[in-house]
Amino acid sequence: MNSMRRTITIILTLVALVAVSESAAQLNDYGRVGSGARAVAMGGAFTAVADDATAIMWNPGGLTRLAVPEASVVMRANTTAFDLASTEEFLDAYKANSSTNVALNFASLVYPMRLGPISIVTGVAYRTIHDWERELVGERSYSDDFGSLLEITETIKRGGGINAISPSAAIELIRGLSVGATYNILQGSLTEDYSLTYVANFDYGAEDIFSTEETTYEGNSLDVGALLRLSDAVNIGAKVTLPYERTSTFTTDGSTEEIVSTLELPMFMYLGASLRVGSYMSLSFDVAMEPWSQSFLLDANGDRYTDEFGDDIPYFDHDVTSLHAGMELLLTNTGQNFILPVRAGVFTKPQPYSDIDGDQVTGKGISAGFGMVFPGRFSLDVAGMIDNVDEFSWTEVASRSEENIRLMASIIFYLDN
């Protein structure tokens, strides 16, 4: 009887931890990955600001606000932790922490020019679309009334994301109104190494479970943006990502078979407004509308998968509408040979998937940062962002939450000298 109970304990624990892995995989971040420390510090409310090289990502219509050539580089560092709570003793207070990883977030070169009264700006950037880099290591010990001890270490190492090479151009149609476009050549991969080691002080001894999966991505998308200057103090911005298809190829260790699929994505829209308050402060607001529930997986013939009633099966459960607000305050020294911007922001972070009850998983975040601008030479910016996925039920007996910390550093060189 005791041996059977121990066996059941091991089976339930391992099954539950594999479910943790699947839940972690579900938490790939489908929110906007901001380009640039300045925009991230302002909570991602940058569609109507878009006055530096990162406009290639935020709103290509804003590129005409650049007066001189710019080169920029942005680095980021991420760390993630999630907690698992359960009514079952063998899962209670399971925790996993992510190692910090550092990577390139954005790099660009932008060149403005004038053809008579017309302002034209061209540029090219490398940028991150989705960032899935993380390594989660969790440990759990379980002991029962019979003195049996089970120690478990689970590691989920996920690497990669989707990146783009993005040529971009913008033109000022009339004074105060600019439009632009960015063509994104998408490439990327997601590699997931999963290992689970358990050690028991009874019959089962020690054992390792290990697997590796890899998915590669490719596709092309087009962003179109516009920036309207209503007055010296008020700007309105808009960007749409037109519908496109993204192809993925999945492989797993020990198999030569490749599974190729295509994801059909709808149009995404981003609207923003910015307001300058006095000479040194500005406020900005964005709403991002991403109808993920209108994305569909296509079969080899290019047809959508359907259910038993012939209805198309959405790839995600919910649309994502996120709200963003930010501020920037400019401080100057007496001689005004440099400017010290201070920034802060807040945002919501809903996810396109559901909890076990079918309700949308939600989240929120805050950000802050500062910079140093040496006019005509270069600028440095740093930002910190903390966001979370709110606690949600992912099985009948367990709930989980996630917290992400991101640091960014940018440098922009002004190349007019």
Describe the model.
With 417 residues, the chain is mainly beta. The chain contains 3 helices and 19 strands. It has a 19-stranded antiparallel sheet that branches. Strand 5 and strand 6 form a beta hairpin. The chain is globular, with a radius of gyration of 24 Å.
Structural class, by secondary structure, is: mainly beta
Q: How many helical elements?
A: 3
Average pLDDT score: 83
Name the quaternary structure. Answer: single chain
**Secondary-structure element pattern, one letter each:** HHHEEEEEEEEEEEEEEEEEEE
Using the alpha-carbon principal axes, give the shape.
globular
Helicity, as a percent range: under 10%
List the helices and strands and how they pair.
Blueprint: H1 2-26, H2 37-41, H3 55-58, E1 70-86, E2 94-98, E3 101-115, E4 118-131, E5 134-143, E6 149-174, E7 177-200, E8 206-229, E9 234-241, E10 244-252, E11 259-265, E12 268-277, E13 281-290, E14 296-298, E15 320-332, E16 339-348, E17 363-374, E18 378-393, E19 398-414
Can you give me a brief rundown of this structure?
Helices cover 8% and strands 60% of the residues. It has 417 residues and is mainly β.
Task: Offer a few descriptive terms.
3 helices, 417 residues, 19 strands, 19-stranded antiparallel β-sheet, mainly beta, globular
